[in-house]
Structure formats: C-alpha cells, structure tokens
Amino acid sequence: MYTAEHVNGLSIREVRCATLLHRMNYGWRYPEYTLNLYRGCLHGCIYCYAPSLIHDERPWGQYVDVKINAPEVLEHELRKAARGVVFLSSASDPYQAVEAKYRLTRSCLEVLLEHDFPVNILTRSHLVLRDLDILKKFGWIRVGMSITSVPNRMFEPRVPPLERRLETLRRLSEEGITTWVSLAPIIPNLFMVDLEGLLKKLKEAGVSAIHAGVLRFEGYEDSRKMFEEKSGASYYGAILGSDSLIHKVNDLIARYGFDTSPKIFEWKDKNTVLEKYITP
Ligand code: SF4
C-alpha cells in the first residue's frame, strides 16, 4: 500500500519499509552499516550506480519512494545492533529535495544520536546545513560532499551548483565538523572543473580528506547504458587514460595537503578500548 503524488513529472511515492539498516561485510573489527531512507534519487545523475542495484523500471531521476516509517524501523533495529559507523547513503542522496518536506534524514539522525551511533554522511546538497544543530551533538561524525569532474546540469540535473556545495563545506568546517570530499566520478576525457582551482577552494573551505575515483561501470551495465544514452559519449572512450590520470590527481591532492587514506573513517568504540586496558 502506498500513496503517490506527481510533481513536475516526478513521481514521489510514500512507502513503508520492513527493514532499513544494512550491515556491510568488510571483515573489520567494528560493523559498518548503510542506511537508505529513500529509494531512487531526484538528483538524477546520469553516471549513478544505483539504478544497476535497484532495477526499477521507472526512469532514473524521475522517481523516489519515501520510506515514511523509517525512524520507527531504525529505532527498533538499533536496539539490537552492535555499534558501528552508519553511512548515509549508498544508493540515494539523504538530502535530495524531498528531504525538505519529509525530514526523514533529520528524524533518523535524532534516533542515531539517541543510540550513540557514529555517522558518516555523503551528499551533494546544502540542505545538510539545516541539521547542523544535530550534527554538532554527535561524538563522532563525518560529512562528505560529492564533486565530480563534470559538475554540470547535463550530467547531474538537480544537484545544487558547485559553489553552493563549497560554501556548505566551509560552513560545516567552521562549525567544527570534520569534512571530506568524494571526488568522483572523474571522467578522464570529460573534465569541466579546473582541478587545481578546485583543490585550492577545498583547502580554503577546511576540507580534511579527498577520495578520488574514476568512472567505472564494470558490473553496472544499466548505469553504463544510461550514461551512454544521455551523454552521447562512449564509456570506453570517456575513460581512456584513466590509470595515469588517477595517479596525477592523487599526487596533486596529496601535494595540497589532503589526507587520501581511509584514516578519516576509522572509528573505535571508546568503551571497548577502555575495557582492553582495564582487563589484566
Ligand atoms: S546524488 Fe548520488 S544517488 Fe543521487 S543520482 Fe546522484 S550519484 Fe545517484
């Protein structure tokens, strides 16, 4: 059972979910979870991997299912879950436009805070600033902003402009929140940003770490087809020269003093560490 509404040709559907937290199997000491409060993403990036994971017949970027009972389901699941970093989100943007109305990310952050879970957010939207009051209460939190080599409406139709994202990072850093940037996907033969200029601005914005990644569609066939249809470019042509380029990009990132290691995401349960030292 669901209710649906159509706004400017976009389908927004309210649904109820049975489960929410998804535990990743990295084999690390502490569990890591992903949390998607929305199914689908109105940002509609044409290089997005999510359509290959979701397999929905509706056109990508034109629909979103809103899991309206997410806070209750999360509350129930957290009571039984071992503490570990919760990542929002792997297959949707937690601050896409519908979040302004439904406030699911905000409500779920409140639940996570109450249960003292560490949180890592990745978004392309300045709407994350609305929740600064909650973000600042977390003992451990990271907020990342995605920036591609093609920050342009043709490739990411409803993503806020790059300048807005830079300003968001600056505000977050000023408020004492550790920020990072996912510089991905880099499309080697489609470079619309001045990389060096961008790195300077990210430095000024107080960003701590940058993780760069080249466009890869191996295992994501639906996404490759979408990218090729919408951009008119061939995938293999677009990524020619990737290997040497990613080395140069990483060298430049390191030269500007950004952390490129996974250290920024390492979280340790302070209670476990204490026990270790107390136990003879
Ligand atoms: S913001 Fe992320 S999840 Fe949404 S369409 Fe773009 S790449 Fe996909």
UniProtKB/TrEMBL annotation:
SMART domains on file: Elp3 (SM00729)
Record GO terms (molecular function): catalytic activity; iron-sulfur cluster binding; metal ion binding
CDD domains: Radical_SAM
Annotated ranges, domain Radical SAM core: 27-271
Annotated keywords: Iron, Iron-sulfur, Metal-binding
Domain of life: Archaea
Claim: Translocase is one of the keywords in the record: no
InterPro entries reported in the protein's UniProt record: Elp3/MiaA/NifB-like_rSAM (IPR006638), MJ0683-like (IPR040086), rSAM (IPR007197), rSAM_sf (IPR058240)
Pfam families: Radical_SAM
PANTHER family, per the entry: RADICAL SAM CORE DOMAIN-CONTAINING PROTEIN, SLR0285 PROTEIN
Name the record gives this protein: Radical SAM core domain-containing protein
